[in-house]
Amino acid sequence: MKRRRFLTLTAATLATPALLTRRAVAAEPGAPLPIPQVMEVGPGAGNTLTAMKGTREFMSGAASDTLGYEQDYLGPLLRFQRGRTANIDVVNRTDDPITAHWHGMHVPGHLDGGPQLAFDPGRTWSPELPVDHPAATLWYHSHVHGRTADQVYRGLAGMIIIDDPDAVDPLPRDYGTNDFPLIVQDRNFDRSGRMSYDPGMMDRMQGFRGTEMLVNGAIRPTLTVPAGLVRLRLLNASNARMYDFSFNDGRQFHQVASDGGLLPAPIAMNGLRLAPAERAEIVVNFTDRSAVRLVSRNVSSGGMMGGGGMMNGGGKMGSGSDDAPFEIMSFDVGDAAETGPATLPASLPSDLPDLGAPVRTRDFTLNVHTGSMMGGMFNNLIGRDGQIMGINGESYDMGSIDLAVPMGETELWRINADMMVHPFHVHGTSFQVVTMGGRAVDPARIGMKDVVLVDGPTEILVRFDKRAEKETPFMYHCHILEHEDAGMMGQFTVG
Ligand code: C2O
Ligand code: CU
Ligand code: CU
């Protein structure tokens, strides 16, 4: 199962101008936004999540080979209730080992769906998940080491909503009416209109970026919303692309939740950055009835090779520094809202825990092994099994535990990166961000997180209260999936 591709890096693969040869095919945008089906998962039996192969016509007349849970691409929206057990049978009907990782959930390591829990085609994995998490928007995806980027790209991902029956949710919350999931992904299509994933050396270094925008599996779709307050649950499920979301008319909106759940109060803004795997819930006021588009600008990942994968206003590949916004999806406004609040509350029922002072500090440096850039001339700098990324000088090794973290103790984790910006993710808990890019941040504006963009020195306060044994440890890693697969990952026990 170990991927050995990186051993064969040569000067020739380095020279392949993959980013220059891609062409976006004329897309057919504007179709209605698909709304994922809801699967309520409780303690009863019979909830099956089957990973399967499929085909989907993202562009008419061109069927792409895809993967999905219970469907051809992506999966149902799983709804779990805090305080109840969620029993689910994950069935593998694909051709390869898969997992189902509950990204952001606080469950013990043996239920987490990390790389050690990969299971083969024909098998079923039946975790009983104790749902012990505030109301939040999470997600699930496959997490097989060396295959995560490919499997998620082809469709093995979906959204999770956790509901808390004991908390009042004062925000719009009629799913599919004034509360919508928006799973945002960039994808490439070949000349015949089929979705393609062919990362070259540059893509492995920078992370793979596509030239077309998909939301819930449809190219630049349209959603008709009521003329009222609407909640949008944004998930950046892209392999590597960061977004600076805004509306094309510059309108203000409010962020009400981040990765781990509600913020203490809505935050007014005109733009929102989301790195891979981050979530944000926003509330948008559509009472003026004007149609708008959700757009983004390119965000450079910095580093030695610049931004790459530029788009222009048409969503096509641009030629470099063009920084015009590109379209993600559009909104039409229908009749006046019949349900939901007319105004936003001044404060929200969030429970930001007091993590107290840290009892110890740990340092993490996210490395790109630069020797690999030289076409293998400096093979000693390529990590274990040819992996080209690492943390603290080591590429991920499934067989060795990097850290043993005591349960229930607050720690300060200091994260730095050489050359590029990376979204750093930790399994098994949510954390508070103390500083980002060397600057102090207000936790009330950021909330509880499980991914933080490391763009300069970053510090987080973290505490674990779920156990992870050495057979099924928790991961910390870069959520640029090509980086994760290339070894920018570590693993730890909690006990
Ligand atoms: Cu989104 Cu280690 O996962
Ligand atoms: Cu995760
Ligand atoms: Cu990275």
TrEMBL record:
It comes from the Bacteria. The keyword Iron does not apply. Residues 1-26 form the signal peptide. Keywords: Metal-binding, Oxidoreductase, Signal. One of its GO terms (molecular function) is oxidoreductase activity. Gene3D superfamilies: Cupredoxins - blue copper proteins. Residues 54-165, 383-494 form the Plastocyanin-like domain. InterPro entries: Cu-oxidase-like_N (IPR011707), Cu-oxidase_C (IPR011706), Cu-oxidase_fam (IPR045087), Cu_oxidase_Cu_BS (IPR002355), Cupredoxin (IPR008972). PANTHER family: BILIRUBIN OXIDASE (PTHR48267:SF1), CUPREDOXIN SUPERFAMILY PROTEIN (PTHR48267). This is Copper oxidase. It comes from Pseudosulfitobacter pseudonitzschiae. The lineage of its organism: Bacteria, Pseudomonadati, Pseudomonadota, Alphaproteobacteria, Rhodobacterales.
